[in-house]
Amino acid sequence: MKRSEEIVYKTPAQLQGCRLAGEKAAEVLRIVCEAVRPGVSTKELDDFAARTMRALGCTSADFGYCGYPAQTCISVNDAVIHGVPRADLVLKDGDLVSVDVTIAFDGFVGDNARTVIVGEGTPETRAFVEHTEEALRAGIDAARAGNRVGDISHAVEVVANKYRLGIVREYVGHGCGVDMHEAPEIPNFGPSRRGPLLREGMVLCIEPMLTLGSRRIRTLADGWTVVTADGSLACHTEQMLAISPSGPAEILTPR
Ligand code: MF3
Ligand code: CO
Ligand code: CO
Predict the structure, then answer these.
(1) Span 6-27, mean pLDDT?
(2) Within 6 Å (CB) of ligand 1, which residues are found?
(3) Domains of the chain
(4) Which protein residue has the closest C-alpha to ligand 1 atom 8?
(5) Taking the chain, what is the end-to-end CA distance rounded to the nearest angstrom?
(6) Ligand 3 is an ion; residues with CB less than 5 A from it
(7) What SS3 state is found at 103?
(8) Does this model's pTM top 0.70?
């Protein structure tokens, strides 16, 4: 995926733009996740997301991005990310559904995702979702001025390893705000104390992509949907945040 090379350190005015975009993205994600239930197709969810965006005065940043054909990414079970919504993909009880919403509002981009279970799920899938959230929280906690990108990566990896989860390596978190994908790349693995220094003005998306089996992936014939090579379940969660002058990052996509 194309990414601008230079880190965009946001001015206070740009940060305010990112805040508003983040709030919209979070609101759309919340509303779409509430609509996840058995019998609904991922295409219906995508249409609902489009209507929700329109009602909130924002637009999809996904649609048309590198030719992406839908408003959101909805990735079910062995699909990790970039799931293209389909009328023939009808959700059923127990499915694991990653909803990833990226919106544009007033010249800024908000990006966030979470995985929800259709119905109750099993103890195993519930734990998987919780462990992926724990990995995200650990990454967020490491996202502080003075740390480095590698500290975020490493914090996510430690949690994934603790639960023996596969870590997808081909896709990463990223800077965000003016463009959907800005520098730096934020892998979900790697050594601490390496990579770009985190400082005030950076807006980042941290997004663990974890599996219950092999970390290997492949892309479906639609050219987008990324699935696990071994068919194992995948979980994805993402938040957008701004590095604070000191202390914890400011979450721009509140849940
Ligand atoms: N929301 C994704 C991310 O977290 C990117 C969407 S890819 C697109 O980086 F093609 F759908 F735009
Ligand atoms: Co996203
Ligand atoms: Co992202």
Answers:
(1) 98
(2) 62, 65-66, 68, 73, 82, 100, 102, 111, 205, 207, 238
(3) 12-251 (3.90.230.10)
(4) 62
(5) 27
(6) 111, 205
(7) strand
(8) yes
